[in-house]
Amino acid sequence: MIQISPSLLSADFSILDEEVKRITEAGADMLHLDVMDGRFVPNITFGAPIIKAIRKSSGIVFDVHLMIDEPIRYIDDFAKAGADYISFHAEATDKIEETLLRIKSHGVKAALAIKPHTNPAIIKDYLPLLDMVLIMTVEPGFGGQSLIESALDNARYVKKMIEESGRNILIEADGGIKASNARLVSEAGVEVLVAGSAVFCADDYQKAIADIRTAATL
Ligand code: DX5
Ligand code: ZN
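Above: inputs. Below: predicted complex with D-xylitol-5-phosphate.
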């Protein structure tokens, strides 16, 4: 089943409570929260205190995407802030297993993310600990970029690996997704589609979400 996870990165930060409520009512399945540290990626966004604050605005599934170096340092904070899923980057740490175990120790779902040019084979060893794999379809750092089509090969590769493992693991894709390419993305095996600008820059969030969902499901 296709799920849509709008990225708060393109929302109006001056009215976050309202934006979170609006997106929940518009039928989003999850809310994607992009945490950037200015080191792993050349941009800084927000951290656990903001996530804790907006947790009061909605019961929607919080899909926290950490784009930070050595994420293990902050897993406890993001779990306590109310994350339902925590994704971190395979490129950001040598302590992948330890970090996944730390996420799971809080009862939070764990996901490993890879950038468009990372070899997806790195994921294989960690499949037993994963609830989701996040395939970046742009270079992480900024919203509003164009989808890198070749990154969908990573989704196809991971899909095959997951099928062979017999485990139930979601594949999420993130970056440059909109109604016009949603079908291409879902055909690659992706079930969770992140969309920032395509949803939050639209006047009608409900229609924007429905359009992406319909296009991906056709
Ligand atoms: C990029 C972020 C994405 C981004 C998606 O580093 O991880 O979640 O905000 O935004 P769009 O859909 O505008 O590419
Ligand atoms: Zn993201």
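The first helix runs from residue 16 to 25.
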